[in-house]
Model the fold of this input.
Amino acid sequence: FQVKIMFVTSGGGHLAQLLPLQSWWKEHAREWVTFRQPEVETALAGENVTWCFFPTTRSAPNAVRNLFLSWPTLRRFRPDVVVSAGAGVSVPFFITARMLGIRTVYIECFDRITMPTLSGRICYPLADAFCIQWEEQREFYPDAINIGPLL
Done:
């Protein structure tokens, strides 16, 4: 059974948390939405990628631009699920995915153990499944699923 997955993520550590899941996602149709940066282009060589607007952290103009990007991107690929490990680019895509009835899975950051991320706090009520990597994160996300550390 093949699932269509759209990964929406910032580069760097956020992307690094999704790459170890390759044994799962390599069997499925997938598309990535992330920032065009040299290290990201290298990590995702051969993958289908839609480049989003950077920076997203607390950038209202780029959040709006990514919101407008999310609609045609999600409608074109028609994923079964949107998966994100953050950061800011996840928010507009989760909003649009909810409007389109597409399932969403958010994975809270590996390195934010004692404080929730802004994106995590916003995406928590939008996510069909919200995953944490440390039990300490449950304080902020009581209904989360602890998947353990990805890195």
The two ends are 27 Å apart (CA to CA).
